[in-house]
């Protein structure tokens, strides 16, 4: 068209669009915009590695620089997905290494990454800068060694909570002396020792280092030296925070901390000796993020620490903080946005700490900016939940886990329907919700009618009938991810809402009442859904069709529904409507 | 979990549309009884003798009927979990159905604090202490006839309900679908955990468990006293009683999990076991039996249910230490050496074990001195 902008101008305009949603919207305007946009897109996010194939991505976006991808469903974190299910990174990396020689960033979550994969990245992508592996597994320290050795411009190596087979601690020495580009290093998930002198030298020659998260094997005595070499640190994860109580160790540490004027985030704190906590006091006023979720610190010491951190925005802590500590938090940290309270003794029969619903109520009352909560406790009441909802209608994420998954309101012994109902009704911006406790279909009715912005819902041991599931699927307009375990939901709701499933990323149901027949029917009805029956009891067609499947994972996909890496306990429908399994 | 709940309340909620029964937290199921209110013809179903057949064989009897089902689970304390369920699909509840599931727990052996009056008390079954017996219709005759008018039908059995804790184990709602060996129960490996519950990431549990407890913190914990008084009658775990006690107070901190890998010769894929869920070698050995010799243990347990007269030491499943099995349990210690399990006190074992391996006896000859002799000795006694 004569009056259209030259491509270069459009490209320049599009370069200001960073959000995927915006870019996707732009590419739908017309064919030429689609074409221009795809050539200038540099970053993509693939929420489900099986929703699309590497070839399709490469064909559409020929000039990517950064890829972020997720593999296994969330419930894999709790061992609900059998080993070997899939989510292998290699096919993606192999295709992309060839297509994108200038690839700079790879972020993977819950995927299986092998040493070969890491080696391939390190050798093919000359400009490789950033590797973040969250909850990944399948690689060893040899793979890390290749990354260290070959990626000349490496800026970030972040192994968040991945499972690494540690063959040796020497991989760190593979960083060449010429490597001075490190900005972020997170090795907190590694169990074994790395050479301290190598670590110190690496830190010393990395002037841009902002984030350093050590592993437990780095003793407290060494911490001071490391910090001293990097006073510009913004985020620090300590190693084991324990040592014999000695005043010289203490003052050494305190001095080192006081030199870090930019420190904003602290984590680590394994094996804490509370007497050493005051060494950090000098930085507390600047701290916005504090992760004490591995720290067994008594409430009194926690309180002393937290009351120094007036600018705290994010706190992850164990239930040792108790209600009394949360009261102090509510009083001191008015900027608090996110709180996570983890159980110190999740399998104990009796509570070991005095942490109840009251703590959460206090924090919701005292912290006006609180929007994200993950809270493990042993008792809850509708009254408390209603109070919390009234206090804090600005919740975006609300995840409550009562240790006994079907605990009723401990005061009235009623289901917690009313409480959670209040949460979804008052918190209109709620995007993520996890519920536990005694819950009937009623709570799902509330969710379906009120939770219009809800994107992710996790349900366990709840509901009475298919009606519950139906309420959710038919009512939650923004739902993207639904994960359900041990609920009496079955075929009817699923089949009645088949079309809804295509608007979502995925649906996980395990130990529910979905029959094999329904899975087949769903797959037949919806050609763009992959219905994976994950069942370790042998071929589903060796049992009657009405038999429930152990797990079903449904996700939309434009790739083939017969992924080639299916293990023998995963079944999907073959294109000719017969059962196919590998 | 051993808190009582008000069963009357519970069953009122569940009355008209019972869908789920909460499982209970207990050590080993050794018996289950299901009793029915007699139907119009005065017939009762045949008694159950094996819990694993509960849903595979008896569910059809419940379909559409106005029945009251009581389940009596004998337990021994400690930690396995199970779940039972009935789903709408298999029972096709019409509105008039009035199925109630009452869960009665009789705690055997007095090993936990929970006191319950047993449903079976009505039938005079006082000797639940060390074993269970199968209750027959006669036992329930008195009980059943009391309930005609009560809407909360299990209220007279309310005392027998203790706190129940659900598990997320495999369940088969349709009876014929589950192959015989695959029961509706799935024990996790002898510990008190349900698969994936509570939803704490494995990474976190392993990190927590591997922490060294600082000696300095001993006096800092005020809850130490609280917990000590609560657990006053808990057997001292250091004496190796085989109660699976998940709370052992060391330095005032509750112990979390200590997962180590376990491999068995001949199987490529290993498992993980939580050593802190056990208090002695006996318990660990039993747990590993369950994990690796399921056919022996479950089947053995099933057929021996009625005959079982004691918890420890008399089970048929393969044992590791008494030389009667083809396998022997070994571990790799901090120095990388492979040792025979059972040679050192339990606590020392815990602090030095890195991983376990179940070796064939023939391969274990090169182990710690005296290992062969060990194999021929009596079973390991708790220390």
TrEMBL record, chain A:
Gene Ontology CC terms: nucleus; SCF ubiquitin ligase complex
CDD domains membership: F-box_AtTIR1-like (cd22159)
A single GO molecular function term of this UniProt record: auxin binding
Record domain F-box: where: 5-46
Gene3D superfamilies in the cross-refs: 1.20.1280.50, Ribonuclease Inhibitor
Top-level taxon of the source organism: Eukaryota
Protein's UniProt name: F-box domain-containing protein
Source organism (scientific name): Salvia splendens
